[in-house]
Amino acid sequence: MSTKIVRTDCNFEREPLIRPFGFKGGYLTEIWQTVAGIATAQGAKAACLNSQSVLWSDAAVFAAHSESAGNSLMFAMTEFALKRAEGLSFDTPMDLLDQLLPATYEYGKAITGKDDLRLTFALNALVGVDAAAWVVYAREHGFATFDEMIPAAYRAALGHRHDQLACIPLMAYAIPMSEIVGHAEQGYFFMKVKIGSDPEHDGDREKMLQWDMARVAAIHQAIGHFETPYTANGKIPYYFDANGRYDSKERLQRFLDHCAKIGALDQIAVIEEPFPEEYKVPVGDLGVRIAADESAHCDHDVEERIALGYGAIALKPIAKTLSMTLKIADVAHRAGVPMFCADLTVGPLQVDWNKTFASRIAPLPGIKVGVVETNGHQNYRRWAELQSFHPCAGSPWMQVQDGCFPLDADFYARSGGILQDSAHYLGMVLK
To answer: Is residue 191 within 8 Å of 168, Cβ to Cβ?
Structure first.
């Protein structure tokens, strides 16, 4: 049975942040929560979210425009895709993405004036559209849970059922050391640390390296001695994210040599996206697990990165669409390459889209539980109010306990609430 889209709508809210959020050498001050609404010929309708990140998806677009203008460009692509979807039919949402992505990507190139626009910019714009398509698809086919709605061909990578997920907080450039220590004292044990700062805003990579080395040394001195029962070696693991800021393998090796010198090397679980995506060099000989994130736009890119020795894939159903993430996860699973779900500083409802996926994939080597990154609670000024918009607001599995989300039968039965309506966001569209 095909699903036919007869009406669409979109809207957005600008969510202010507690402090400027720094990564990729830049800073965000707000995040647009865009809402994509879809109604079908059979009367199903859904409104789903997308947290836009222009800086993450294409730093050059972010640098070329004001923050609001960059967000406006991505939102225009969402509206373009929704208008194009009207009248289209699809057998699964993955088919719909195949129909919408090429045209949306070309439209994005036109309005940004960038022929080399990164594909993740278009995928980020399509997250809410894709999610809404999955929800109406589930409703039309009578699928009550996430497990039922996933096509059988893509279920192999999703065979686990974790009873808890470690919550990975994000330590961006501006996070004070006291807050990092505070997280460790509260039981958070898997720390994601942003490296690749541009301390004097002059693009000097040597200054970047020196800043990174000093930052990591300070962090290791402050929390490196903490113990945890959730890792094989009993130590806190580090997850460094460079967002493509390292320009050479040699410079990254100097960073790793420094980590070895201060005794932090054996606590590095993963270094994510150290190089620009066009810098394609073998990474299997660096002695640490290198993960692909932004460079793994699609399943074909993942195959290429695995061939270069990348030892983990960061999955982002909340940034690259659920449909594309299923394709990416299938490739990684077949290759035996570990995966984990990373954040895009999304709101509470999208956190559960990520948790629903993360709860079903195998744990990272050396980690005894599943993991999911979420840093919205550290960054959104209205976090408590955003939680109230969740259809399952108040559920125990939405709260972190001793550094982990507890996942019970209710979480799995309700699929984290992702297939239920949020009255707030539904009220913004399809009126």
So the answer is: yes
pLDDT at 186: 93
Question: Residue 329 corresponds to which tokens in the numbers above?
Answer: 């996860």
Contacts of 395 (CB under 8 A, 6+ apart): 410, 411, 414, 417
- Residue 286's domain comprises 156-418
Report pLDDT digits (tens) over 23-78: 887 889 999 999 999 999 999 999 999 999 999 999 999 999 999 999 999 999 99
- What pLDDT is recorded for position 175? 87
What single DSSP character describes residue 422?
P
Query: How far is the C-alpha of 366 from the C-alpha of 268, rounded, in Å?
Result: 11
CA atoms within 13 A on the CB side of 66: 3
Q: What is the CATH number of the domain that holds 53?
A: 3.30.390.10
Structure tokens that stand for 114 in this block: 């960038």
- Pairing mode, strands 3-23 and 89-90: antiparallel
300 and 203 co-located in one domain: yes
Domain boundary among 149, 170, 203: 149
**118 shares its domain with 178:** no
Residue 386: predicted pLDDT: 98
Please report whether residue 375 resides in a domain: yes
* Cβ atoms 342, 296 nearer than 8 A: no
Check residue 26 and give its pLDDT. Answer: 85
> In this structure, are 81 and 162 located in the same domain?
no
Q: Which helix (H) or strand (E) segment is 79 a member of?
A: helix 67-85
Q: Give every residue of the chain whose pLDDT is below 50, as ranges.
A: none
> In angstroms, rounded to a whole number, what is the distance separating the alpha carbons of residues 194 and 209?
12
Q: Are residues 267 and 139 in the same domain?
A: no
Q: Which position has the token pair 């990348």?
A: 310
Give the pLDDT score at 16.
97
SS3 232: coil
The kind and range of the H/E element at 17 are: strand 3-23
Residues 32 and 131: their CA atoms lie apart, in Å, by: 17
With CA atoms as reference, report the closest residue to 154 among 90, 92, 102: 92
Task: Quick: pLDDT tens for 349-358.
Answer: 999 999 999 9
Residue 22 is predicted with a pLDDT of 83
What pLDDT, on the 0 to 100 scale, is given for residue 294?
86
Euclidean distance between the first and the last CA atom of the chain, given in angstroms as a whole number: 27
pTM: 0.95
Strand partners, 34: 12, 50
Contact (CB, 8 A) for 130 and 321: yes
